[in-house]
Each structure stands twice: as structure tokens, then as C-alpha cells.
User: Fold this.
Amino acid sequence: QQTVLTGITTTGIPHLGNYAGAIRPAIESSLRDSAKSSYFFMADYHALIKCQEPERVRESTLAIAATWLASGLDTDRVTFYRQSDIPEVTELSWILTCVAAKGLMNRAHAYKAAVQDNVENEAADPDKGITMGLFSYPILMAADILLFNATHVPVGKDQIQHLEMTRDIGQRFNHLFGETFTLPEAVVDENGMVLKGLDGRKMSKSYNNTIPLFEGEKKFRKLINKIVTNSLEPGEPKDPDNCTLFSIYAAFADAEAVAAMRRQYEEGIGWGEAKKQVFEHLNELLKDKREAYNELISDPAEIDRILKKGAERAREYAVPLMADVRKKVGIGPLA
Ligand code: TYM
Assistant:
């Protein structure tokens, strides 16, 4: 029995890259095999580590939840919830904090990168501006995963180290207190879609090069028109394999359509025409979902209701597991 679990930090508005790289494959996997249980959640406690703007966290939580739902997530098959609705996550996180080695956290990429920044900027203190939340971020993530005994965690390459740390912490707990947690595996799609953004670098909010998944039609067209190309004229053959526009199209079209576009490139389609076709294809593909998304975000109370229901279901698993953990570590009722 597989348990698949993954989360998205609630600090931004989903873009084409999040969708093609994380949301779409997760939904497809959840629909493929009904014996498998899936847990997908909004990591809003993780958001607090890098964002102290409450309005932004709220807006992002709503946008990410609505994106999953508008993209065809079936809440009857998937346990879909908000991390902060599960108090057992923070409780387990503390217990794991008391088990995790500090030296292990010292090696976490996110923490090391922040220290490195301080050193490069010649800050007086290498830990300047670094919160304990950032430092122990991998422990919170381990709690997310171990609390549901997840077996498979689909993530991008940037998260692999966190999964290794999760296994390390889980193993240490099992060793100290007896077999309790399943050690999860990261599932990284090797030809994993790392979608490129407007400027040809990886599509990412931190590069400011994203195309929001459910941007309104007019702005969406404008953004597609802004994707960098080169100065080849119509009639000159173009190289689809080194082309951001083509790779975006390929992430959203079937094999036959991709082959047809490839031929058009070789025959020298003009950039204006290629962009028009990419826009039309994507717009057609997304427009019903966009409409559903807009309806969903206009009713946050309904989203809350859906997430609460998901949290109740998640807690059916989490509460007994936490009771076992408490007992194993020696806290709770004496009799
Ligand atoms: P986050 O919110 O940064 O990213 C969510 C997921 O999307 C992947 N990703 C990408 N994949 C392909 N192409 C891209 N351009 C791209 N950008 C982002 C990320 O690798 C990730 O899988 N710590 C996690 C959230 C989290 C979590 C968890 C994940 C909290 N608890 C438990 C799994 C299990 C994070 O910040 O992801």
C-alpha cells in the first residue's frame, strides 16, 4: 500500500511551472490507482519561515487551494488539507526536534545558503536575520511526512535533501523508541519538467519571470508574447530544442501536436505566429479551469469548508499515531 504525500508552501500564486512540474503529475497519479492513498496539503506553517506578510500568506493559501481544485483534484480520493489545521504536525515537530541532531540541521541547504549570503555580504554575525524557523525547517517537513507514514513523496530536486533528513530523523526515532515511522522515498521525475520562464531561466517567483497559471486572457496573451526568442525572421528555420516558447508548448501539448509544431519550426514559422498558436492552445486548455478557479477564489468560505473536511480525515490517521508517539516517549496519561 502506497501513501503519497506532498505539500506546497503558501507564499505565491501558482504559475505554469508549478502546475506542469508538481500539481498536474500529483493529480494524475492520484487518479491512476485507487488503492493508493494521497495526501496533498497547503504548507502554511512553512510559509511563515520566509514570509511575514499575513495578507500574502492568506491570499496564497486561497490561490493554491483553488488551483488544486480547479485542476481536477478529487477530494473524495485525496486527503486535501491545510497544514495548520492539523495541530499534531506542530506537536510531532517538537518531539522530532528533541531527536534530530543539531549537526544535521547545520548541513541543511537553505540554512547554509543564508549563512553564505551573510558571509559574502560581510555581516558581523553569520547568523544575522536567520530565524529558528528557517534553521529547523527540515524538522517541520519531517513531521508533515512521518505523521502520515508516507511512503512516496513527489518533489522537485531542490527538496531531496529534506527527504534524506526526514529518513534520518525517522530512523533515529525508531531506534530510540521502537519501530514507529515508515521511512519515505523522494519521487523525483528525472526528465522532470523544470519549466522555463519568460527570460529562459527556470520559471520561479524569485526570478520574476513567471506566467501565472490562471492569469486573465488579455494579460496571459501579453505574457506569452513576452517570452524571449531570437532575431530569426519568418521563413528561416528555427531550433525547437533551444527554445523556451517551444518547451512551454511541449509541456502542455500531446505528442502529435508537438511533432506538428516541430515541423513548423523547421519550416520557418515566424515568432509572432508561433506565439499566437501557443497562446491559443494554452488558452483553450486552461480557460474552463480558469473560470472554475475564479469562481472558487470568490468563495473562500467554501474552500475553508473543503479544507476542514480534509483536515478531519487527515486527523483520523494523525491523532492515533500521535497517541502512540506520546506513549512511546513517556508523556501523557500515567495510568
Ligand atoms: P515549494 O513550495 O517551494 O514547491 C512546491 C513543489 O514544486 C516543486 N517545484 C518545481 N518543480 C518543477 N519545476 C519548477 N520550476 C518548480 N518549482 C518548484 C518543488 O520541488 C516542490 O516539490 N518544503 C516544500 C513544501 C513542503 C513539503 C512538505 C513537500 C512542506 N512540507 C512535505 C513535500 C512533503 C517547499 O517549500 O516546496
Summary: The two ends are 35 Å apart (CA to CA).
